[in-house]
Amino acid sequence: EILLVIKPSEDDVTARTQIIDELKAIVGCMRSQNLRGASVELFGSFVSNLYTKWGDLDISIQLPEDHVYPSTALREIKGALQRRGIFRIVDFIPEARVPILAVASNRNDIYCDISINNWKGLINSKFLSWITQIDGRFRDMVLLIKEWAKLRDINSPKEGTLNSYSLSLLVIFHFQTCQPAIIPPLKEIYPGNIVKDSRGGRLTATEERNIHETCNVNIESFKRKLTNVNKSSLSELFVSFFQKFSAIKTMASDRVICTYSGQWEQKRNYFRRSTPILIEDPIDRPENAARAVQYMSHLAKISEACEGTYQKLLSASCDRTSLISSLVNREISSKILI
């Protein structure tokens, strides 16, 4: 029922496509030397097909010259958008690790995060889109977990919790550690380190095509050789996700969630002292996809959310209304509970 409400419609896709076309037109008309030859590239959940009907757009302005400061380029784009009046400025964070210009469409209120030369974002989005080919339950699970995480206020890196990419990695890890596994260790899909092997993710078209072909071949090989198929329903996988990660605070103290190997790995001493949780980025090892979680209190909040939801799902006294309201926000639940 929840998926029927949150999955995007054709109109949702069309609205986002229009926004992309508008941004391309605006950037293409800019006469700034800093933005000459710039291209507008999509990444994030829209590319990986892991977005809901309310999903934001992530956009990278790819510049041919590296000497331009991202904050300078974003400031010029901000001015151009303000002059055109099609978008309103929501936020501008030039001093961030990855400078961001957040805007929203005045026509349909869809939000967009614009960054500069986000090579890593481009490739990890495509990598996730390739993973969705393995099993249809993966996409559905990610959509459900993201909506649940928003309700529980643990899907906000600005506030020290998990970003959507790390939530997707948790779902991958869950599917890898089920019995039998649904997704293989990611080293069996791509054995290298994409970002470090390609100058920070700066892939040429040929390099990207070769990586895609390698992943496709290995994914098809995994599916072809799969004899012991996991037949768990989406509901069963949903419940076992929370059961597994109820203990994440304890497990993460000395272990790494490693989707590359498909298992918990021991933390190095340095990370034990400095990192409450380490969800290793499979395309940029050993970088931490959950680096926004910097305090134990934030990890405790994530763990408690998982534990509370697991107990709710097991409770015999929990009625349908109470259960749905504990998984999604009021806007979604009101469309279901009618």
UniProtKB/TrEMBL annotation:
Residue ranges the record marks as coiled coil: none
Domain Poly(A) RNA polymerase mitochondrial-like central palm: 6-131
Listed name of the protein: Poly(A) RNA polymerase mitochondrial-like central palm domain-containing protein
Gene Ontology molecular function, alphabetical: RNA uridylyltransferase activity
GO biological process: RNA 3'-end processing
Pfam families reported for this sequence: MTPAP-like_central
